[in-house]
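Build the 3D complex.
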Amino acid sequence: MLQKKICMLGAFAVGKTSLVRRFVESIYSDIYQTTVGVKIDKKNMHVHGKDVSLVLWDIYGEDDYQKMRWTYLRGAAGYLLVADGTRKTTLEKAASLEQRVREEVGVIPFIFVINKSDLIRDWELDPTLESQLAAQGWSILRSSAKTGEGVEEAFSLLTQKILE
Amino acid sequence: MGSAPRHSRDPLEFRPKMAETPPTRPAPDEPPLEPDAQAYLELRQLILAPEQEALERLHQRVDDPASRTKDVGSVVAEAIQLRRKQGGDEALSVALAPTIETALRESVRKDPGTLADALFPVMGPAIRRSILETLRSFLESFNQVLDQSLSVKGLKWRLEALRTGRSFTEVALLHSLVFRVEQVFLIHKKTGLPIGHEVASAVAMQDPSLVSGMLSAIQDFVRDSFHTSQGQGINRMNVGDLDVWIEEGPYAIVACVIRGIAPRELRDRMAEVLENVHREYSAHLDQFDGDTAPFAKVNGELSRCLELRYKEETKTRSFGFVYATAAILFLLVAGWFSWRAVQYGRWDHLVNTLREQPGIVITSFGREHGKFVVRGMRDPLAADPAQFIASSDVNPADGEFHWGGYYALDDGIVQQRAKSILSPPSKATLTVQSGVLQVSGAASANWVKDIQSRALLVPGIHSVELSPELNPGRLAFNQAKSQIESAVVKFPVASAALSPPERLGLGKLAENIQSLLQAADSLHQSSTLEVLGHTDSTGAEAVNLDLSQRRADRVAWELGQLGIPERVLRARGVGTTNPLRTEENEENRQFNRSATFRVSAPVP
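Done.
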């Protein structure tokens, strides 16, 4: 069996938990996030003819009350970097997180997911940002936890990148 | 090395006696040489140039530290080996020890993890062995203390200890613990992914990936929160009945989910499993990328942590023969007890039978010095105990009987006693009821008269009841009656006169009549005596009738003379109508010339 540890990273309240909630197997309550700082879920994928079991570490987004625990990133095969399209600060946070990951655990595959695509009219996104980031080699996807748009693709794409 | 001081920069300086000539090449500042000398020099150069170059190179090699290092490096391993072969092992060790020590110290200073990781597979067993030794000696002394204690359970454990060759303490401890390892996880430390997972049968379980992840997350959380270093995470969590034991290695951790209280032995087993995994899979563990394929066989190793539970089960199985022995012992004991019970039952039955017999009293029954002993009292007339013993199932040799004598008051016995003492006539019947002797049947008046006083001398009889037919008055009445009615007063032919002997006979008769009248009186009855006159058949009937009347009158008169009251006498002549005998001869005819008597009384 092939298993991969995947982390969900992003600023506070960007919708990481909502993103995974409808698509994963879960036995733990969300309360672990605020107590232990992480909640672990599982998603089985079938990519390139291979069964891969993704173990998702949904890490609590840093806020005023709690710091992110970087040790949780140890051993991750890849991560979903999540930002909220309606809040510019979360996009900036994403960039700083990506840099921090590189420092802490090195270069590992990730997908940048801009969430809340259902509210695209309220987005504070600089229209050129996506192309700028893409030029840096980032894989970018728009998603909506509400409609489910882009969620499966995000996991699938990340898995593909990991298996490359 | 000792030759070093002799070296100099000029190779010719230590050239052999080849020539006592000056140096080969002139120094730039030296004056030009003579032509001869020049030729010699050329010659020398021609002949010796190759050697000189070789010498030059040698010189350089010896002087240049880099090339010297290279030379030594290529042979140092062989040199050390050779040295060891030559037996200089100890000196070499002594020489190297300080360097190695410094090197180790330096390595630890730089990164303790490297050395710890390298030593991990060997340190565990070594430490465990040493602890085990210490524990074993402790157990032995503990054993001696426990040896003193004796209980059924203790005995059972002792048997098991004997059988399995373990120490008693070990067995005792093992039995005091009831536990079950329900799940074993082998978790990759860095990724938190499960490498292996074993579950005991019929255990409800969650997804191992999630549990493994959360376990590692919690480990990280605790380590972060309390700033402990690697290898110092949680090693035990307790939730109600469940215990989670965690054993951490450099690359992986083993976690056991245990229900109940597990022995320390399990912790050792976990450490052992962890070491084995690290030894066998160290390369795979280091490069683990989530693919568990290389660890296909690791579950076999993990299941050794579950084995402890199975061991308990096999133990129960091998208990079979202990149980069998116990069962046989139990049957033997039970058999002996039931045999005893049967014996007791038989004797009990015998004693109860004896107790029921009239004239036998059991005062005690029990076992003394291995025998059944019966004590009691017996009336001489009671049934013989020997006959009951003979007809019972008991073995007479197993018992003893002690009898004392006494007079029983049981009616049956008293009755027998009365019969043997009073010797009643065959037609008389004696019965005893509650100490009252009842006499019935037929018996002589004298015997009846006697019995009333004699019976009271028989132990157990306090009064006598005679049945009506044995009433003394009646007996006397009947006796007098039969005597009176058998009397015959004879007369001469055709005469009513009494001969003197006949008259004398009437005296005796009168006495009997008096007795009769007295007896009737005592019975409060009145009685009459009919005097019947008879004649023989000769002569005319009318004459005979008259004669018979006169004969009757005559006897009645005589009786009156003898004091018999007239009111009880009735004289009646019956002629020839009631002859005493058929007149075949004279003698018979004489009997018919007579008077006879008939007593009439209402009493039956």
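The mean pLDDT of chain A is 85.
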